[in-house]
């Protein structure tokens, strides 16, 4: 699918990702990320195995396409005590591996050991088809994740990693009041080259950081 330009005013609707989205979901991931994700990851997304997701579709496209993904966000719930700063998005990356020593992200979120049930929501992937960018679609998708996280009483934060050169995404997270709490040196290895990542956090339900932001 290549949508080069849209000549109409789109009407964007948000819904969960479903099995019929599999092919287009894989295609958009291949188009927008510098890495390849394993098919197991996509199967887990569309079958809702430990992953929650939202799709953006443009209802004003012609009939055949009016339910086709033009954006997505995927996330999963992790136990704060088991989460690691150095943990890569899932085990899906084949050319991208975590390089930073693992540290408990719970430590960065005032994890309370007397509350072992505390959870976090980790954003795995977020993307919008190029022709639909700068219309607030990623903002709406992230808002869905934040709403979802806030609705879970044990959840203390939404967090994610972003590669240090991804200016558009960094602006987006800052604009949405995510806090940058760590820079992880050489976190990503892509085609033999190391890249730093930033760890961004959005606190919910009274979660907060024990350290000052970068
Ligand atoms: C990052 C991405 C998801 C943004 O999607 P989007 O729907 O265009 O984002 P929005 O329209 O909601 O943008 C909101 C804010 O993001 C920032 N932003 C978005 N695109 C930007 C750009 N090209 N340059 C600088 N800031 C940008 C701005 O702060 C913008 O607010 P503004 O319009 O008031 O300036 C999209 O560019 C994308 O899919 N990129 C490739 C995949 C990717 O990098 N995913 C994130 C991995 S961590």
From TrEMBL:
| InterPro entries assigned | Acyl_CoA_acyltransferase (IPR016181), GNAT_dom (IPR000182), NAA60-like (IPR045141)
Q: Name one GO cellular component term.
A: Golgi membrane
Which PROSITE patterns does the UniProt record give? GNAT
What keywords does the record list, in alphabetical order? Acyltransferase, Chromatin regulator, Chromosome partition, Transferase
Task: Output the Pfam families linked to this UniProt entry.
Answer: Acetyltransf_1
Q: What are the BP-aspect GO terms? A: chromosome segregation
EC numbers, comma separated: 2.3.1.259, 2.3.1.48
Give residue ranges for domain N-acetyltransferase. Answer: 12-205
The reactions it catalyses are: N-terminal L-methionyl-[transmembrane protein] + acetyl-CoA = N-terminal N(alpha)-acetyl-L-methionyl-[transmembrane protein] + CoA + H(+); L-lysyl-[protein] + acetyl-CoA = N(6)-acetyl-L-lysyl-[protein] + CoA + H(+)
Q: EC top class, in one word?
A: transferase
Q: Which GO terms describe its molecular function?
A: histone acetyltransferase activity; protein N-terminal-methionine acetyltransferase activity
Q: Which family does it belong to?
A: Belongs to the acetyltransferase family. NAA60 subfamily.
Q: What is this protein called?
A: N-alpha-acetyltransferase 60
């Amino acid at each position: 699918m290549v949508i080069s330009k849209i000549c109409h005013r789109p009407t964007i609707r948000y819904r969960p990702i479903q099995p019929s989205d599999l092919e287009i979901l894989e295609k958009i991931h291949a188009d927008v990320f510098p890495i390849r994700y394993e098919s197991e990851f996509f199967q887990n997304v569309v079958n809702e195995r430990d992953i929650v997701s939202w799709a953006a579709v443009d209802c004003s496209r012609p009939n055949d396409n009016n339910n086709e993904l033009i954006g997505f966000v995927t996330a999963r719930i992790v136990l704060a005590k088991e989460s690691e700063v150095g943990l890569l998005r899932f085990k899906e990356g084949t050319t991208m591996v975590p390089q930073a020593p693992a540290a408990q992200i719970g430590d960065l979120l005032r994890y309370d050991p007397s509350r072992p049930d505390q959870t976090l929501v980790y954003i795995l992937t977020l993307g919008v088809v190029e022709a639909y960018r700068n219309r607030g679609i990623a903002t709406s998708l992230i808002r869905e994740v934040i709403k979802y996280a806030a609705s879970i009483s044990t959840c203390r934060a939404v967090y994610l990693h972003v590669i240090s050169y991804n200016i558009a995404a960094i602006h987006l997270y800052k604009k949405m009041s995510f806090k940058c709490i760590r820079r992880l040196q050489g976190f990503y290895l892509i085609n033999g080259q190391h890249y730093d990542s930033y760890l961004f956090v959005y606190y919910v339900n009274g979660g907060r950081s024990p350290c000052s932001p970068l």
